[in-house]
Design goal:
alpha+beta, about 170 residues, six-stranded mixed sheet
Length: about 170
């Protein structure tokens, strides 16, 4: 596993072994690919909202990708915008920030998953198109939950618990 900077000292992403891209770049490319969207939505048609056909859903997902990219550009250009507001706890019941807490960003049906390292510092672990209520209901969302937990365990094993330990780990 490798961690790459998306924008300095604030947002990072895992680049998993065997992958040429970090998770953010991989997901943005994948979610912008009409062929992928068609295959995904066809395979998961039983989960589509009843009022949407796959074409409407694909258009909505493409719009969501554009919104996600715009939000990331705004955050990058304006350090006053906190990533703590961008990523919310994965489990809605989390009341106080925890060390390496599991986080998500939801834009329509798109989910971007990350670990909170410290205030305004996050590492993206992956993402998916989520059409069901619980992550455990489908294999592709369960895999993302597993990646979140595996990434957290990896960082814990490297002694990461705050910004200082994270940047020390990155400089090794």
């Amino acid at each position: 596993m490798k961690i790459v900077s998306i924008f300095a000292d604030r947002l990072f992403a895992f680049q998993y072994e065997g992958s040429e891209e970090n998770e953010l770049d991989r997901l943005l490319e994948l979610w912008s690919n009409p062929g992928f969207l068609y295959a995904f939505l066809t395979k998961n048609r039983q989960d589509l909202p009843k009022d949407l056909d796959w074409r409407s859903m694909a258009e909505q997902l493409l719009d969501s990708v554009d919104m996600l990219q715009d939000l990331l550009i705004q955050i990058h250009e304006n350090p006053e915008i906190s990533l703590d507001q961008f990523f919310v706890p994965l489990v809605n019941l989390e009341s106080a920030p925890k060390v390496l807490s599991l986080r998500k960003r939801r834009i329509s049906y798109l989910r971007l998953y990350a670990l909170r390292i410290d205030s305004d510092c996050f590492v993206i672990t992956g993402g998916t198109i989520k059409l069901t209520h619980l992550m455990q209901e489908r294999i592709h969302t369960t895999e993302e939950l597993y990646k979140l937990q595996k990434a957290r365990d990896y960082l814990k094993s490297k002694g990461v618990f705050d910004n200082d330990s994270f940047f020390e780990f990155l400089s090794e």
